[in-house]
User: Which sequence fits this backbone?
């Protein structure tokens, strides 16, 4: 039982490791995560044992072993030159607070196991709600701490947030009606039969997050009923096309259950025309959800929040605090315009979540949950709106700078301009660029495709090699770049949320890519020989 | 930007708080969480602001304020006398490891943001799978790290685990078939039409966890299609009645999609007859899920794992490591007997989860997730099977001791005997006990109901007052106690997972309850006047 009563010994192996971590987090990560990538198959060799060991290990032995096998080969997500992720460096104070959160080991499912953490979580949801919807004081006084209302739901991340929003949309559409007890009680088949719909559909742009497909599967709607609407060249959904799709569906007696606007697409960072989508949702009489998992943090900037104008008309909004709000992993939220909405998924049990209780668990998809709201609360207070204003504005402006830097190179090509702090581009040797432009001007799809295929190979080669070298990291995806004859191409993808990423680092990333390109023997020679 | 580069200052307010926490966790919690409960409405006063503050706060000011408003009024979940929760004291080493986990900020959704954490998580799932299913070495060699297989899925908790299991069961039942693309793609209505079922049903005992209802709602099956089967007097499902229910449903062309066995019910801690349920599932040709969210940890005891015999025949098993495995909140798992099962919910995207990748996110309900697997891994190695053997056995034997202690008092009544380390009971003055027994012997339902109603009021009074006094905490629920003419009653509920809970504390809990009972002026006088 000693492990339950022992103090942490500062001079133990684990104590020393922790001390290094606390005194210099960035230094610790830089020092202990090896730069050059070890192949996954090699790493896996250290994780082959499939039996729980019989004998206990000493904590110090275990800690040392993990430093070698796990920490050394984890990903330095907070490195200023690792600009391919949505994770960033973290403010130092979240570390001791996390430790406190773990030590307190609250369970937010109910008051009995969380007490003051419940009003704290409700307050965070209230503040986030106010950031999006800006209702007046009486609104928050009435609903923020009301037992039978909720301004949102905390969850592990954006996926669960999106699922929760669409779950509510489905249950509100197919609600109890006369003798019919509603979809929650009677199931989807009876609900569709009762309401006389042949099917349901969800409309979203082709840039919608994959979690929407997951939600459609889970909710029994079916992935095929996520209707993907094409984007205009700017990666924003074409609202006219969405309206056409909706009319076509409704003519087939397929009810549009929800339309989803994306505020910061995962792949290009663009924001759908939210006002027009709100108008369309109103016309269709359907739920309007905005997936702002990543982009929502930009509402914290007074200078740039206009980019998301219209979001306040959404019925529900997803925001991840663990993305650009600088909170550690595991802090998603969905906010509800109407404090009554969550009652569509309300549930009770005997021993907890009794009717009339303020237990948060009665309106969340998850059950037991940790007190992550505390870390969001801390960031909101310690960074404050003024602090976020600087952080968000710097990110957006850095992305614009990087976009211009790329456009100014004769051997790089910007694939999507940054609207927030995300952009995509690729390496295209100058000579190839002019050939590609000629082929596009001549509307020669076959030639464009030939060049694109080779460029795709080259982009993948550069991205992989750069990652393996461990100095910097950009991610990659496939999109339809502007002026590419509607052809899909592989591109580098960069997210500039880390406040420690400097202009020098951005220049180095391009320089490194240019150098790596020269090493390719498969695609580059063919491209230069075109 | 300084908050991203500053070291943690050991002499700052937050540094000092952390030091106290590290040096003496139990002391820190005892000292800083106030004992006497403040009403929630009072606590809420500190969480009224609904606007994100404009100006940043000093970390030290914020930390001090939170100590007063949040920490002081949180719940001391690890107190040895707080025996109403499933949370326990934590081994000290999980605290520094948690801090490391947060500092590393990995995202387990994909290799690119988690690297070695991915094989680590797969190893943990492998070890847990082996604990349940005990397959041979070639099995784990083949599947543990296979890109297109998975032995389980990590998630935030048992609710998501249960949802995942039933999601898989639904998708496997309504799989693609000829021209039909399957429920995942085409939705539930078309799937039921294709397979010619009028509806689906899930069978579980009346003691099943409320998350199953949530799953039925979410999956479009409907809460009414969770068919609750009565338990025998021992709170284990009556398998004969379940068979009858299944036959009745199938005669109505309602397909039994899954039967769920409970291994450690939330309210009484009992284990369903898993072997018989496995036989029934085989006969019905349906999925057999075991919800061992809480009880599954008992498999770590060689002495008592026989209590869960038959679990190895389940298609899927839910286990929460944050319950009796002494891992902090947020570590749920679902294990799959067949490494192919998870392919029924597999999904891909362009920029991550590409086909053939080992990204864990392609087979999980959640998207972005933290590296909680690391803490489970640490506990499995540092505590080891030998350590867990002692912890689990002590818990079970302490519960048996407490059950006997309660039975030996003439003014307490055991409502359910502990099978694992959970039991229920109530305070019934000796005189009332004999009157109740007489009424039961006479089969006088009205009289039994009259007594029960008064006892319910008394039980609630005692439980609430004891919680408010802050010395100890038991929870309460409503069940049908043995020998109570099938009438539902309110009972105290106790979980004895905390290794620091002593026999003296158990005696004190009863003494305190007896004292509190005397203070009741509403129900006790009426009971004594009967």
Assistant:
């Amino acid at each position: 039982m000693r492990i339950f009563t022992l103090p942490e010994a500062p001079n133990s192996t684990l104590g020393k490791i922790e001390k290094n971590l606390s005194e210099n987090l960035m230094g610790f990560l830089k020092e202990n995560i090896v730069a050059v990538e070890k192949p996954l198959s090699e790493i896996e060799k250290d994780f082959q044992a499939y039996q729980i060991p019989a004998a206990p290990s000493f904590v110090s032995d275990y800690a040392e072993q993990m430093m070698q096998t796990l920490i050394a080969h984890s990903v330095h997500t907070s490195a200023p030159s690792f600009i391919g992720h949505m994770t960033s460096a973290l403010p130092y104070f979240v570390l001791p607070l996390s430790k406190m959160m773990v030590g307190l080991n609250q369970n937010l499912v109910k008051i009995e196991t969380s007490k003051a953490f419940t009003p704290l979580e409700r307050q965070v949801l209230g503040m986030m709600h106010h950031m999006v919807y800006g209702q007046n004081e009486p609104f928050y006084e009435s609903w923020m701490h009301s037992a039978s209302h909720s301004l949102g739901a905390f969850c592990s991340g954006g996926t669960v947030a999106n699922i929760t929003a669409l779950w509510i949309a489905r249950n509100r559409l197919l609600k109890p009606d006369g003798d019919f007890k509603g979809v929650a009680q009677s199931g989807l088949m009876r609900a569709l039969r009762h309401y006389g719909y042949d099917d349901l559909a969800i409309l979203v742009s082709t840039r919608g997050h994959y979690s929407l497909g997951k939600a459609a599967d889970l909710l029994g709607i079916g992935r095929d009923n996520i209707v993907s609407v094409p984007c205009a060249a700017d990666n924003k959904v074409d609202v006219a096309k969405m309206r056409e799709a909706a009319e076509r569906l409704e003519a087939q007696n397929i009810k549009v259950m929800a339309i989803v606007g994306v505020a910061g697409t995962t792949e290009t960072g663009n924001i759908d025309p939210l006002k027009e989508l709100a108008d369309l949702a109103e016309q269709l009489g359907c739920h309007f959800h905005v997936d702002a998992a990543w982009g929502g943090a930009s509402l914290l900037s007074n200078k740039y929040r206009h980019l998301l104008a219209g979001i306040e008309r959404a019925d529900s909004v997803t925001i991840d605090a663990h993305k650009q709000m600088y909170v550690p992993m595991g802090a998603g939220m969905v906010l509800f315009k109407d404090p009554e909405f969550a009652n569509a998924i309300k549930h009770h049990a005997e021993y907890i979540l009794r009717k009339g209780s303020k237990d948060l668990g009665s309106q969340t998809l998850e059950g037991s949950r940790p007190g992550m709201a505390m870390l969001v609360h801390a960031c909101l207070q310690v960074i404050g709106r003024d602090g976020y204003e600087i952080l968000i504005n710097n990110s957006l402006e850095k992305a614009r700078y990087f976009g211009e830097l790329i456009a100014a190179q004769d051997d790089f090509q910007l694939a999507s301009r940054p609207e927030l702090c995300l952009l995509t581009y690729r390496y295209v040797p100058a000579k190839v660029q002019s050939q590609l432009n000629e082929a596009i001007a001549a509307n020669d799809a076959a030639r464009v495709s030939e060049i694109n295929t080779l460029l795709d190979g080259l982009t993948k080669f550069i991205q992989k090699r750069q990652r393996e070298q461990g100095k910097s990291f950009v991610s990659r995806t496939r999109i339809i770049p502007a002026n590419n004859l509607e052809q899909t191409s592989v591109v580098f993808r960069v997210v500039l949320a880390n406040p420690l990423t400097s202009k020098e680092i951005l220049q180095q990333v391009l320089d490194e890519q240019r150098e790596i390109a020269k090493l390719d023997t498969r695609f580059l020679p063919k491209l230069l020989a075109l």
The first helix of chain B runs from residue 2 to 5. Chain B touches chain A through 172 residues (CB under 8 Å). The mean pLDDT of chain B is 94.
